[in-house]
Amino acid sequence: MGHDGVDTDRELLRRCREGDPDGFRELVLRYETMVYTLAYRMLRAREEAEDAAQEVFLNVFRALPYFRGECTVKTWIYRVAANECITRSKRRRKRHTAATEFDEEHPGPTLLDGEASGPEALERKEQDERVRHAVDDLPEKYRMAVVLHYFEGLSYEEVGEALEIPMNTVKTWLFRAKGMLRARLKEAFAGDAR
Amino acid sequence: MIGCSDVREHLEALAHGKLDEKLARKVHQHLAGCEECREFFGLERMLAHAATTAPSLPAPEGFADRVMERWERELLPAAESPGDILLAGTYVLLQGLRLAWKQMWQPFGFVFGEVAGVLAYAKELLWSPAEDACRATVSALKLAYRSTTF
Fold first, then answer.
1. CA nearest B15 in A: which residue?
2. Residue B40's CB: how many other CB atoms inside 10 A?
3. Engineered SS bond to A7: which of A11, A83, B36, B92, CB 3.0-4.6 Å?
């Protein structure tokens, strides 16, 4: 139990291992936003993201006996989530082209209160959308590395732990991903200019 | 002046404003004369901006309830497999039988003790004279045998 009466992550895992339903519910509530956001960023379809996020928590429960505590609980949950999302994304890519399945129910961010409005802000917003679409087109492993590092704010080391790859490989994947993004965005912006 | 590969190591920190002033100045000097690195820096800034404006998405309402439903439906039965139920049932049955057996014979314990005592006494009474008679007979036979041989 933490100082403020809230269970630490490891304490929660212990309760889950003992089959305590309240402990498992608390774990789900603590990480649902993180897992759902990652699933949505990888799958871009609300229903599939929810299904994937549910599966992630069930997989977390199934994998409890194998968690040895080499990384934080958060990174470990990211690992389980990354595996699920990559598998689903690959499966979907085989069936369809990803672009046709993008869900429009969660559009890009709207302008927040106090955020600059006008043509410049709109342009930035369009640019953000373009970047996100370019990220969506990356191969799964590179996309996951970019999402975890840039969008979820994980360090190289944490990305390595989540994807079970050495830190140098993380750097290589990100380097290659940025090379692809640069080429795609250049193409997109050049298309606009014509 | 620093080279392209060193500069690219620092572009992300520069885009996030996390590079120390001295190094930032050197990187900017390089960028002024290198178009490719400028493009990479542009990308870093675009990624940083896209990431900061991409909000975290709250899970749909009732998400935790749906996970708990699936947990109970899909994972709890696994912990109570037919093998586990059979094992637990057999254990309970054996314990019950053992207890019933003990309870059933407990009132007869005193009677059994008494009966055993009576039997032991009866054996003593009946067996001792018989044993004496046997011994006397054996002795007589031994004597008769000696007297005929000498």
1. A150
2. 23
3. A11
